[in-house]
């Protein structure tokens, strides 16, 4: 058996899978179609490019499931977390990065590894020989998507994803906006002032909702029937669900005090988060949109403080593809009908950068075990990694399968802890304590990676 692992796709999952396998002494070839074949969302040919948010979300490994996933990836020597730490920028309790240097570092680390090579070409058919990981993400090319559909005999599932606009900081009116993380969260002053806040009165909010609902929007093309992923809804869709929806979502005013007018409580607040280390770019948090470009400028400049905003990138919408993993993949993420192929990342139906990279980490380690004849114990269901992989490979209902972020609802229940909101803090700490012990035990049973 050859000791070469081929990976299709150089995003979060493909990059992490390659790193794990290469560090275990396996020769890896990453097949990445960019920049020769472009996608709607990518701007470069870098590996690990972030196309939507620049945030890996909460970094709290005791009270948050995604923070626990960060911890598990760090414990496993994950490349994505290593480079995220290296290029971290203030974001309160979240782990946000300077996106371009981050991707450049991921690319440089992989290209410098003696066991990794990168081939820039589009793979249009599913290979029948050798061991492969398909990590093409939600923007899988049309040709390969057709090949996957042909092999699985099933219609690929799909949903629509939206991107939030990015604004030049110098164009924001700081006489109106102020810097503060919600509830002053963070251990340093920089973290406690990581977000830029734009307040709205009730009248301003109502006028904004009216304009948002009336704005010209990108419509689906004929034959496109996919829905949205609830964790990344366009603001127009949220507004259509009720006029107060945004005030209870990305525009909630709680935990914030306007430093320009401390006595006046804002009716709603729009938050922006730094998008690069220089602090010259800010993205509007939770403001994914399908408004057409002209309408975006008109509507978003209604936000107090953004009247003269200049946009480095406007928002957009694109179609994301994923497979019905519970029916198609075995417990080691192999395609049942063609087991030389593993699937990893967002194409499997996990949602988010971290979840994608985590499934790449597992796929890489599972492939190493297969190539070297080792027996790899199942990933403990009590860990964040195990909870996710269990969900996509059989734990979810195949009839209603949709993209899923990691969350404590996927974890086996704990005995002897309070249920409900009052017991949540103790319960979450119990989940994370148990997961860390079980994850370290799972890692310790594996052979140490080659130097």
TrEMBL record:
Q: What is its main location?
A: cytoplasm
Listed under GO biological process in this entry are: tRNA methylation; tRNA wobble uridine modification
- In the UniProt record, which is one GO cellular component term? cytosol
Q: Where in the cell is it found?
A: Cytoplasm
Q: Does the keyword Cytoplasm apply?
A: yes
**EC number per UniProt:** 2.1.1.74
Needed co-factor(s): FAD
According to the UniProt entry, its GO molecular function terms are:
flavin adenine dinucleotide binding; tRNA (uracil(54)-C5)-methyltransferase activity, 5,10-methylenetetrahydrofolate-dependent
Pfam families per UniProt: GIDA (PF01134)
Q: What chemistry does it catalyse, as a reaction equation?
A: uridine(54) in tRNA + (6R)-5,10-methylene-5,6,7,8-tetrahydrofolate + NADH + H(+) = 5-methyluridine(54) in tRNA + (6S)-5,6,7,8-tetrahydrofolate + NAD(+); uridine(54) in tRNA + (6R)-5,10-methylene-5,6,7,8-tetrahydrofolate + NADPH + H(+) = 5-methyluridine(54) in tRNA + (6S)-5,6,7,8-tetrahydrofolate + NADP(+)
**InterPro entries linked:** FAD/NAD-bd_sf, MnmG-rel, MnmG-rel_CS, MnmG_N, TrmFO
The UniProt record gives the binding positions of FAD as 9-14
**Key words, A-Z:** Cytoplasm, FAD, Flavoprotein, Methyltransferase, NAD, NADP, Transferase, tRNA processing
Q: MnmG N-terminal domain spans which residues?
A: 5-374
Q: Which domain of life is it from?
A: Bacteria
Catalytic class of the enzyme: transferase
> What function is annotated for this protein?
Catalyzes the folate-dependent formation of 5-methyl-uridine at position 54 (M-5-U54) in all tRNAs.
Q: Which family does it belong to?
A: Belongs to the MnmG family. TrmFO subfamily.
What is the protein name given in its UniProt record? Methylenetetrahydrofolate--tRNA-(uracil-5-)-methyltransferase TrmFO
The top of its lineage is: Bacteria, Pseudomonadati, Pseudomonadota, Alphaproteobacteria, Rhodobacterales
């Amino acid at each position: 058996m050859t000791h070469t692992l081929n990976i299709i796709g150089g995003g979060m999952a493909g990059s992490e899978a390659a790193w794990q396998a290469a560090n275990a002494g396996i020769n890896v070839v990453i097949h990445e179609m960019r920049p020769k074949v472009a996608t709607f969302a990518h701007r470069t040919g870098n590996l690990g490019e972030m196309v939507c948010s620049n945030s890996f979300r909460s970094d709290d490994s005791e009270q948050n499931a995604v923070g626990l996933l960060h911890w598990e990836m760090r414990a496993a020597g994950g490349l994505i977390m290593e480079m995220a730490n290296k290029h971290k920028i203030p974001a309160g309790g979240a782990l946000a990065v300077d996106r371009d240097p981050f991707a450049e570092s991921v690319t440089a680390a992989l290209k410098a590894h003696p066991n990794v090579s990168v081939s820039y070409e589009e793979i249009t058919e599913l290979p029948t020989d050798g061991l492969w990981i398909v990590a093409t993400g939600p923007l899988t090319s049309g040709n390969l998507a057709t090949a996957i559909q042909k092999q699985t005999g099933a219609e690929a599932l799909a949903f629509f994803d939206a991107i939030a606009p990015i604004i030049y900081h110098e164009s924001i009116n700081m006489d109106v906006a102020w810097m503060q993380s919600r509830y002053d969260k963070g251990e340093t002053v920089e973290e406690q002032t990581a977000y830029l806040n734009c307040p709205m009165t009730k009248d301003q909010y109502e006028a904004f909702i009216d304009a948002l609902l009336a704005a010209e929007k990108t419509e689906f093309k004929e034959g496109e029937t996919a829905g949205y992923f609830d964790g990344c809804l366009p603001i127009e869709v949220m507004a259509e669900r009720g006029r107060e929806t945004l005030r209870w979502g990305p525009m909630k005013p709680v935990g914030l005090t306007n430093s320009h007018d401390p006595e006046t409580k804002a009716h709603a607040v729009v938050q922006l988060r730094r998008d690069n280390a220089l602090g010259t770019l800010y993205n509007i948090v939770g403001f994914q949109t399908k408004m057409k470009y002209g309408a975006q400028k008109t509507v978003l400049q209604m936000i107090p403080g953004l009247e003269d905003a200049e946009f480095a990138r406007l928002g957009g919408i694109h179609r994301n593809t994923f497979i019905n993993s519970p029916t198609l993949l075995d417990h080691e993420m192999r395609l049942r009908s063609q087991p030389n192929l593993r699937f990893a990342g967002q194409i499997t139906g996990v949602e988010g950068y971290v979840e994608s990279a985590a499934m790449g980490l597992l796929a890489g380690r599972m492939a190493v075990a297969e190539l070297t004849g080792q027996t790899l114990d199942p990933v403990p269901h009590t860990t964040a990694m195990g909870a996710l992989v269990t969900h996509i490979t059989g734990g979810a209902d195949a009839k209603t399968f949709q993209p899923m972020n990691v969350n404590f609802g996927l974890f086996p229940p704990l005995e002897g802890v309070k249920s409900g909101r009052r017991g949540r803090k103790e319960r979450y700490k119990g989940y994370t304590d148990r997961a860390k012990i079980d994850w370290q035990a799972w890692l310790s049973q594996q052979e140490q990676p080659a130097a």
